Amino acid sequence: MxxxxxxxxxxxxxxxxKAYSVMTEATDNAKLKHWSLTANRLYYAVFHIATALLSVxxxxxxxHTGVIGLIGKELVTKNLLTTDEAxxxxxxxxxxxxGDYDDLFDWTESDVQPLIEPTRKLLDKMCNILKSDI
Length: 134
Prior knowledge:
It is a single chain. This protein has helices spanning 5-31, 35-56, 64-76, 83-101, 109-133. It is mainly alpha-helical. The chain has one domain: Four Helix Bundle (Hemerythrin (Met), subunit A) (Up-down Bundle). The longest helix has 27 residues, at 5-31.
């Protein structure tokens, strides 16, 4: 079923709100030095805004890897995001995966702290791209 434009916009706005809320969770967990949880929340902040961008373009994916692939196709190949920004998204996904599922493994401050500000900047950039799409 195809969504109407106003429905796509409402879903996108909700996902943007969720992305920034999750980003706040990331920074709050960083203050508590919960680094694996911080990495998880950084990834999900980007994931939510990525799905917002895709939804207004009438696109969706069934997997996290599929979302990242569509972001590459829709944003990187059109020079809306840089390859370094795409690598950050992939890195965050890998960190989330390892932090959530690998046994006897935890991310450290030196792994995660340097990614907080680049992720915040990426969210803002993706939000601006989304605003031009709506």
